[in-house]
Amino acid sequence: MSRFGLLKHRAKLQEQYLWTQVDFKSEGKDDLSNKALKAATKLKGCGQFLIFRNYYTIDQVKLEKFHVCGQHLLCPMCAGIRAARSMKRYLDRIHELMRQNPRLKPVLITLTVKNGEDLEERYNHLTSSFRTLLSRYRDYKKKGLGV
Questions:
Q1: What is the rounded CA–CA span in Å between residue 9 and residue 80?
Q2: Cα gap 10→83, rounded to integer Å
Q3: What is the pLDDT of residues 105-142, one digit of tens each?
Q4: What InterPro entries does the record point to (predicted)?
Q5: Burial call 135-145: b when 16+ CB within 10 Å, e when fewer
Q6: Concatenated DSSP letters for the chain?
Q7: Closest CA to 9 of 83, 80, 99
């Protein structure tokens, strides 16, 4: 349950940032300001309604009902719930891999690029970018520097 508190806190920080992007003097003429206002308003109500249920037979507390804004690309609360659903789909596979190699740590990562003409070129770009990210992470773990 504490993870939902952390996600709600992050959503509040995101909401506060979006309110700084709203220009109230433009009177609805600025498109970017209107988008920020709409997103901040949706984020304000995100996660206000969470109902948990205690399953005594399996000794677990699970989230049963909730109200979210649905902006998973912008809202940490929605992104966290969406990530949990994705992890649930692959949980058996993850446990099998963890059993085979206990040193592994599961990470959910989404790499996003614009659509392009050549799919192979985009795939190669994503693969090389991911390898660069991993090598920088390994360097950071070794030396304490990420560059």
A1: 12
A2: 15
A3: 877 777 677 777 888 888 888 889 889 988 988 888 88
A4: Rep
A5: eeeeeeeeeee
A6: -HHHHHHHHHHHHHHHHHHHH--GGGTT--HHHHHHHHHHHHHHHTTSEEEEEEETTTTEEEEEEEE----TTT-HHHHHHHHHHHHHHTHHHHHHHHHH-TT-------------S-HHHHHHHHHHHHHHHHHHHHHHHHHS---
A7: 80
**Residue 126 CB neighbours (<10 A):** 13
Model confidence over 35-93: pLDDT tens digits?
A: 777 877 787 777 777 778 888 888 888 877 887 777 767 778 788 878 888 878 888 88
- Residue in this structure with the two tokens 């991911």, named with its chain if needed: 130
- Residue 24, both tokens: 């109230």
